Amino acid sequence: MLGVGGTRAKLSRGALRGGAATDRGGAGRTEAQERRRELLRKFQERAQEE
User: Fold this and answer.
1) Higher-confidence residue: 41 or 17?
2) Taking the alpha carbons of 38, 33, 40, 18 in that order, is the dihedral positive or negative?
3) Are 29 and 23 in contact (CB under 8 A)?
4) Torsion sign, CA atoms 9, 12, 18, 24
5) Using CA atoms, how far apart are residues 20 and 41, in angstroms rounded to an integer?
6) What is the pTM of this model?
7) Does residue 24 contact residue 30 with C-beta atoms inside 8 Å?
C-alpha cells in the first residue's frame, strides 16, 4: 500500500490550525482587509462624533 494516493501536500501552520488549506487566490486575505477597513471607518466616524 505504500505510495498509493499520490504525494502529500504540505500544509501551513494556519491550515493545520483550521484555516484555509490553500490561499492561492488570496480571497480570504482580501475579505479580511475589507473587514478591517470597514471597522477602521466605523471607529473614525465615532471619534469624529465625539
Assistant:
1) 41
2) positive
3) yes
4) negative
5) 27
6) 0.43
7) no
The three cell numbers locating residue 6 = 499520490
Residues in the chain: 50
pLDDT score of 31: 82
Say if CB 19 and CB 29 are below 8 A apart: no
The cell for 13 is: 501552520
Burial zone of 15 (CB within 10 Å; 0-12 exposed, 13-18 middle, 19+ buried): middle
Chain center to CA of 20: 7
- pLDDT class for 4, splitting at 50, 70, 90? low
Tens-place pLDDT, residues 8-28: 677 777 777 776 555 555 566
